[in-house]
Recover the amino acids of this structure.
């Protein structure tokens, strides 16, 4: 039977069509190849790039070719011709030794590129004008293609292209904290992407899009499972599933790694011990490594959380972290695998400042790790707070490969409900001067390996990806995944340029849109610090969930999980004395940094309460008392969220309805939570300062007890 539609229904349908056309659910991320609207530019690009010539047919080159076709069809509305010989206006994709190159690029230039770098250059080959994308390897070509597409997306192609790019870090990794039951620890965008019950036989198309997205920003490593690892991940049946994923990811240069539990030999192998010096344990891991590499020849290696937050480790057997890491490294060495051993360790002793513990545990081990071990260090000494000083381990272990661990998922930063562009947080850490080799020895330089003989370098980001349709929950949370990739490729990239590219690729090239959105993004992290943890406050979130305020939390499973442990507010003042007369954490830094942090006069005010217990009446640089200054920050935070809202509300006409509305709703939620944060903290800390909220500021609507009872879910 043919369905009959009423006139009214058809009318509504017609009205809805433009809306549907503008719909965008965010699935395409920054690979959003929508047609260039500027007619002149469209004509220019369509003429300049109308065909391509490719040598080789590996899976990686096929991926490059497909991406090019996809981008052309979306951005230019054209289908590029595949050529048998080079003609004018074509794109040439060729690796180093292809004869077609006619010596365009010198051997020296190729040497600089290494295994993953690429060149994009406007050249003449046999008197034909073309754009050459070349590299030593196929993956270099794929990276080059993504870069080239980015130039079209962001409308930044000049007439003469002369681009050379090489990654500054070897391992550029996502750490998934995905559990085998599909849940994600600290994941706020749905469940795990990995459908373990369907693997190895069924391949979700999404795995390919995941790999594409990672390759597009140069991410070349994925640790599939939670660092709180379930030993089952190393069973035969899981390894077969993982092989399927590795096969899907391989063309995109994405290697698979696994988080392993130190007691796997006991749990899976039935051994009585997991002592790293025990020969049966050593044999067990060597056999396991062989088994893995037989299935996955390019397997990356292991990530290990040991003797941390209840996880087993070598110290359970009287051995050191180096003993544990080296035993695993030895098992992986014949296969060229690596161990990423986390430095995130602390005990529950209330007497030893938690901030000291990672440094005290690892610094003495400098030089003891095998060459295929990287020590993976969180950016700050506690745990992914909205602001922390850089970890003093950066620069302190010159004979060890050190890699950076950032968090992309917003555990302490409002989950995927708050707009927080984390690139500025990453950048702040990377730009911090360790003074390890005198002024200018930035954390970026340290992790690039500039001061050590160790050759392995890396950066990891704890993933914010889940199976929600737009991958990351908040449309802007995608920018944090993107930023991690960009900074892992080059830790000296500016957040400003990352934001610029991301906005153009994801939303629009319209200047009227880019300027306000970029401002929102670049200010958003400081805004969050203001309404959550200004002036160096930290870890005052709700217990366990880490969502919403909880400065009053004073009972916890261990003393250093209490908020009161961190803020130390009393009738005199607030803050943790970590100076030379306090816990002495300042002395873990090189002298110039130590002295700056140690003095209340020179300590940056944004870290003041991290390092000092400061009187409520202390005069700040602004001339205000500490109390008034703190109030100012909390109120500013809320005001700035409101400013984000009003900026966003003016941008409706620039983008699709779907993402516009989603961001609008989330900003409303963020504003409400920022008010809760502000009111909670100001009212709670006021019980110690006994000082009034400065006159002109709006008063909290509810009493403190209301906020203490409130749970933000
Ligand atoms: C994976 C914090 C988080 C934990 C996380 C841990 C870690 O403590 O709250 O969920 O565990 O860091 O990084 O290992």
């Amino acid at each position: 039977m043919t369905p009959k539609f009423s006139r009214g229904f058809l009318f509504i349908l017609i009205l809805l069509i433009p809306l549907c056309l503008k719909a965008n659910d965010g699935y395409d991320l920054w690979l959003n190849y929508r047609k260039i609207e500027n007619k002149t530019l469209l004509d220019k690009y369509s003429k300049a790039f109308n065909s391509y010539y490719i040598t080789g047919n590996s899976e990686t080159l096929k991926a490059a070719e497909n991406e090019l076709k996809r981008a052309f069809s979306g951005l230019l509305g054209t289908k590029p011709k595949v050529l048998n010989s080079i003609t004018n206006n074509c794109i040439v994709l060729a690796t180093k030794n292809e004869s077609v190159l006619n010596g365009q690029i010198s051997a020296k230039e190729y040497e600089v590129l290494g295994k993953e770098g690429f060149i994009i250059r406007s050249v003449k080959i046999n008197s034909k004008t073309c754009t050459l994308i070349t590299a030593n390897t196929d993956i270099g070509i794929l990276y080059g293609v993504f870069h080239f597409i980015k130039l079209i997306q962001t409308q930044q192609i000049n007439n003469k292209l002369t681009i050379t790019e090489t990654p500054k870090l070897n391992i550029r990794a996502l750490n998934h904290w995905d559990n085998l039951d599909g849940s994600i620890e600290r994941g706020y965008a749905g469940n795990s992407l990995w459908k373990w019950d369907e693997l190895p036989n069924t391949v979700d198309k999404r795995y390919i899009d995941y790999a594409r997205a990672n390759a597009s920003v140069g991410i070349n490593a994925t640790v599939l499972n939670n660092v709180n690892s379930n030993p089952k991940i190393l069973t035969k049946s899981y390894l077969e599933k993982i092989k399927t994923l590795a096969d899907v990811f391989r063309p995109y240069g994405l290697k698979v790694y696994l988080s392993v539990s130190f007691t796997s030999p006991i749990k899976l192998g039935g051994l009585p011990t997991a002592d790293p010096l025990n020969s049966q344990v050593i044999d067990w891991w060597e056999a396991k490594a062989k088994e893995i590499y037989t299935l996955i020849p390019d397997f990356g290696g292991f990530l290990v959380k040991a003797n941390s937050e209840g996880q087993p480790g070598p110290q359970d057997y009287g051995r050191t972290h180096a003993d544990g890491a080296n035993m695993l490294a030895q098992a992986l060495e014949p296969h060229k695998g690596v161990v990423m051993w986390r430095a995130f360790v602390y005990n529950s002793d209330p007497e030893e400042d938690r901030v000291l513990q990672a440094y005290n545990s690892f610094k003495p081990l400098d030089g003891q790790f095998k060459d295929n071990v990287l020590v993976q260090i969180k950016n700050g000494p506690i745990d992914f707070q909205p602001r922390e000083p850089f970890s003093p381990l950066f620069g302190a272990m010159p004979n060890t490969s050190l890699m950076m661990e950032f968090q992309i998922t917003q555990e302490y930063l409002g989950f995927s409900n708050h707009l927080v562009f984390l690139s500025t947080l990453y950048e702040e850490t990377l730009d911090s001067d360790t003074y390890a080799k005198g002024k200018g020895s930035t954390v970026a330089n340290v992790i690039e390996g500039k001061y050590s003989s160790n050759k392995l370098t890396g950066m990891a980001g704890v993933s914010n990806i889940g199976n929600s349709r737009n991958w990351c929950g908040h449309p802007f949370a995608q920018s944090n995944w993107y930023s991690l990739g960009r900074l892992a490729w080059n830790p000296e990239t500016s957040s400003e340029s990352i934001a610029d590219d991301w906005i153009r690729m994801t939303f629009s090239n319209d200047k009227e849109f880019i300027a306000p959105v970029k401002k929102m993004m670049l200010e958003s992290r400081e805004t969050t610090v203001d309404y959550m943890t200004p002036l160096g406050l930290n870890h005052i979130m709700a217990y366990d969930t880490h969502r919403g305020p909880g400065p009053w939390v004073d009972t916890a499973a261990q003393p250093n999980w209490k908020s009161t442990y961190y803020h130390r507010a009393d009738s005199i003042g607030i803050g943790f004395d970590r100076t030379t007369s306090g816990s002495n954490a300042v002395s873990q830094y090189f002298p110039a940094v130590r002295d700056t942090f140690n003095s209340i006069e020179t300590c940056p005010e944004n870290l003041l309460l991290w390092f000092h217990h400061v009187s409520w009446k202390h005069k700040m640089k602004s001339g205000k008392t500490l109390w008034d200054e703190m109030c100012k920050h909390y109120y500013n935070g809320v005001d700035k969220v409101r400013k984000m809202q009003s900026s966003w509300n003016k941008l409706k006409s620039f983008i699709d309805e779907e993402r516009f509305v989603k961001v609008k709703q989330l900003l409303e939620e963020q504003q409400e939570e920022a008010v809760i944060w502000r009111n909670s903290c100001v009212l709670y800390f006021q019980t110690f300062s006994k000082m009034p909220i400065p006159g002109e500021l709006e008063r909290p609507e509810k009493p403190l007890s209301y906020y203490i009872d409130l749970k933000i879910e």
About this structure: Residues 171-506 form a domain with the TIM Barrel fold (CATH 3.20.20.80). The pocket of 4-O-methyl-alpha-D-glucopyranuronic acid is lined by residues 177, 185-186, 226-228, 305, 309, 344, 383 (CB under 6 Å). The chain has 22 helices and 16 strands.
